[in-house]
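Instructor's aside before we start: the two examples that follow are unrelated to each other. I chose them only because their records fit on one page, so don't look for a connection. First example below.
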Amino acid sequence: MFPRRTSLALLATALLAGCARQPVRTPALPDGTHATVAILETTDIHSNILGYDYYKQKADPTLGFDRTATLIGAARKEFPNHFLFDSGDTIQGSVLADWQAQVQKMPCDRELAIYRAMDAVGYDGGTIGNHEFNYGLGWLSQVTGTPMDVDGGARGRCDGPHFPLVLANVDSARDGAPIFRPWTIVSKPIAVQLPDGRTENVPLRVAIVGFTPPPILEWDRQNLAGKVTVDGVVEAAKKYLPQIQAQHPDLVVAIVHGGLDTAPYTPAMENAGWHLAGVPGIDVMLLGHSHTEFPGPRFAHMKDVDDVRGFVRGVPAVMGGFFGKDLGVVELALDRRDGRWIVDKGRTHSEVRPICSKPGDAASCVASDPAIAPLVAKVQQAAVAYVNTPIGRSELRLSSYFADEGDMTALAVVNAAQRDYVRTELPRLHPELANVPVLSAAAAFRTGFGGPDDYTDVAPGPLTLRSAADLYFYPNTLAAVRTDGAGVKAWLEESARRFQHIDPAKNAPQALINTHFPGFNFDQMQGGIHYVIDVSKPAGQRIVSLTYEGKPVRPDQPFIMVTNNYRASGGGRFPGLDGSNIVLAAPDGTREIVARWIERHRAIGARDLPARSWRFAKLQTAGPVVFTSASGKAGIAKSDGLDHVRELKDHGDGTATYAIDLSR
């Protein structure tokens, strides 16, 4: 019997997950039977269905699900026994996704483009990433074909993907029941080799259980607050694994939209895969969210992690990159012992297979699967036409090639638009704050992480909605928080972790950028503020000058800071930002606010934008201070006032090493 207090919710969960069925066991096989099974994974596709750059209006063969589909086809030929799963962040992240979700919303009886493409390939299951919640629960409920008993959720069943989606750690606030199936079992026939050498086909029953990052309640507070509750990944696993094991699956695969972090565990941990691997009962772990590859050298020194063969605390695991750039493959060697399948870890390994054998080299990329493009041709055409809608002109080049080094041309547009919006709207909501100075913080989202084309670059001339989408890459909404001078300084100190500590006496080249600190967390502030960053000082002590309108900022001096909903609600874990000091949560997307600001100004020149607000402290170094950006862009740095930047070496792959003279 279920305990009385939770009987209905648990019974609903059991029925939803299939727990009411009698256990189904694999047919008896003699010990010594062997099989090889591949678990294939995609993750963080972000609706990049086609290899296409919507901002530069050209094909980009270095990314796209259409090319991942080619790798999937090849892997299936190599491994006749296979399962294909997706680890989330699937429906958001491209212009095409925004078009379908925000501009020309689809009717209930039409399938989302990315799911049409995935269904054409044939998936066995998937989970829900944090960005799935960006468009709200109503949209998520509709496009996944999942009725949800939550505010705004769809009650009827719409056309969703033709494979199961599982999510174990998000429940409805109304009744405590999971909004998706927490787990399910998928079964497929596999060929096994009997001890006498004969081959036989038998079903392999694989249980899948899914997890999303618990901080979604902070990151998408506007969409989720009061509507859902979120459990920690480990707690959710311990809750549902007994139900799963009662059904005697042959394998349990945890599909985790999260990476690896060995810090002490908390239920709010964003990347809890390492801790989840320590929960007994998980045979394979599929990772995501971190936009990197596992196995891989980034994890070389992590405790109890084999970064070559792909094991986390003894559990085979894989993380297959992002944007359709890679396919994750776990090659499982299974042995039959004592009437059950056992993973032979000595003959098991994981690998990440890239669509391009040489990073950034289009000539080395596999061909796209010809079946994908026709499926999305109409919506692709509509999305391209949409982003070419004219909205104004610019007299300036707006780029992020040197945003880390002080070129604020692209950020200045965002900061100006954000600040104008709040200075107009805030007095209506909070008249008592009308005279508090308003500052704006923005980060360059595209700083080369995804390769030499992953930069904002809006040329002088006509501006379109494509330009606004390039200037503001994510579909965040705008938020404003109340803070003070001490809070501003702490915010800037956290942002300054983007830089490595530079030793002036060192003769060898020193890298300026801390690549473990993402560019989207390097907030740069404007609006009458000026500050100096000293990279020779330790992190946390680098803001050596901070003034507002020419006067030193006092610790108790009040400010309103404009940012986005992600940062204001605690995204990036900046000090003092947890959602409690939000004074304005705009219903408008920041991208739309930027577009409307451009439309009002029509022709944007230097007079319309705030001046550059920060610089590095002057520092004479014995050796060069270097960084990487797209090659051949030194002229842009110079024209934007960074005449202390020079190109040192073109790498031949679209990137180059640059040096910055900090003494100037």
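Example two begins here.
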Amino acid sequence: MNTGRKSSYRALLASGIGLMAGPLAAHAQENGLVINLDTVQIESESNDILKQDGYVARQDRIGTKVDTPIAEIPQAVSVVTEDQIEDQEPRTLNEALTYTASANTGNFGFDSRFDAFTLRGFNAYYNGLFRDGLRQYNSPTGLYKTEPYGLEGITILKGPASSLYGVSGPGGIVNLVTKRPKDVPFHEIELIYGEDQRYQANFDATGPANASGTILYRVTGVARKSDTWLEGYPDDKYYIAPALAFRPDGDTSLTILGELSRSVTGGTAAFYNPSYGQVSDIYNGDPRYNDFTQEQGRIGYEFEHRFSDLLTVRQNLRYSHVDADLEYSGLYDAGAPDLARYWGHYQEDVSTFVVDNMAQFTFDTGPVAHTAVAGLDYTWASYDGAQALDYVSLDAIRNADLAYDGGQDTNQTGVYLHDQMEWNNFNLFLSGRYDWVDTTSHATDYSETGQKDEAFSGRAGLSYRTEWGIIPYANYSSSFSPNIGNVYDDLNSSVSRTADPTIAEQVEVGVKYEIPDANAVLTADYFHITQQDGVVFDASTGINKQRQLDLTSKGVEFEARTSLDNGLSLIASYTHMEMTIDAGAAGTVGKELSGVPNDIAAIWGHYDFQPGSRLAGLGIGAGVRYVGTSFGDDLNTIDNSDRYFVDAALSYDFGALDPDFDGVKLQVNAKNLFDEQKAICTSGYCYRDEGRKVIGSLRYRF
């Protein structure tokens, strides 16, 4: 029986079964036995660096850089598994994170141009995105776009993580786990149709590339042509991600991961704001001039060799590049009966090279078992931008020359040590790291400003596993992050400066509960984070400008995940938090940071009717997301009302109807089923939520 996540491979096993069938049948006849051969099932995830079972992730190496049971990591960790991605069919990374505790993805309404989200109230999309354990550097506009179909999971490590990963934000990091080669064949074709003329085709193929199985391959692809609810705002994409793994023996592996993609979305997602704190129904964009074209690529590898029980070495390396070309437009009040329009053109290119070298040591000192890591990593990143702005005509902006708009070069080197010690069910984690960052900022007149930053980051955490599956823990951690671009101390001035690095400290206590004899995990935690020199965007002057401020974030999180043998899977999360401004613009000190709701809650359930039921093959899912009230500006003069969003899914596995259709599944997903559309304001500018969207898919696994 194919449950919708697993596929039967009778043809591939036919020869092996045939060889055994004769002797087994004869033995059965002699002994009066009846032999039932179960259908062989396989999942699409590789379970390589992230081991998962349904909606529950059991082991990962992102929290500690070594393979570790997630429940024993003394820090809050959430995981979006591949089964959850398949059941919910997210179109973007933002949508994939919507059921995760402390993740807020709705600050800017509908905007498919970027994955812009916060963790524990802090911006996490510039310095909190990692892919396969390596930082994914994002510039002001050339943000690397994530294709959810290319992932086999998303790990969210909450709170400061610089002690192992270097430059990153106070709220935590989001690590994207790329689909990687498997040692058993897996093939999938999926066709998708949805509202707004959404046509999409996905494919995924993996397995051994040679007879001995020492070379494995995987290739994943997406082709999409789509409109959106905004006029002249497309959502097109072409994506291909090849991967190759060499495993000559059990001690050595080399995995090469690549991607090439091209996307075209709308360049303008905003609506006209007639006054401060108000948003109209008038779309700012000009359908004639509204393409945001982005071409991106990455190539890298993961190498690992085990010398002995004591020593294993790894090197992870990646080069990536983004070319972004943004056409945008807006409306303004020129004092005439009709609104006047301006047009803009912006181009940016970003290149990044990242390499992480580490050695893992496994040894004992008396009764204490150690797993230690020593490492050295290096990041080089560079971006440059050019722009033009015109208030005359569309033809004028199309013919305008682009003027240099500045850029930045960054060189970062970090050394780190980590030791996790186990003794009598106690786990003590100690991590320390020192970073040196050399930043050169280029002004619009090509003048250069250099800045050197360095800092120590640390983490100390302790957990204890009881015999009942309850694991209390506590940790202290810190973060360090030089910032991208310039900031303004006076938003009404044209004078800017290079941003100071952001530093933060966290204290967290919590408890995790692995329910015995059940695939279920419950977590609860309290966190308190203080940040200095954080960077936020402020649109209170009518122009988005970056400024720096000090913040305190504190709150509680609850999360539950389970996938049971009866076909039921559940996710529930709740976050209550408060983020206050300790130092910032005049009149904001002591106020709450805009766009940070005090309460976020979500629950999602999915049920597959089991074999033997009259409804076998049917799958149903439903979820509710709640985003509480917040302020729309840092002066706390704008109020954002709370919002509810309902999602749903319905699927049918045709393999339950006829074995000849094994692997064929029809699925329909609805986002925001009751068409909830409200205004949401952040940093003084107001946006609109996207309404209901329905998507249908037909998938075949073979």
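DSSP finds five helices and 41 strands in the chain.
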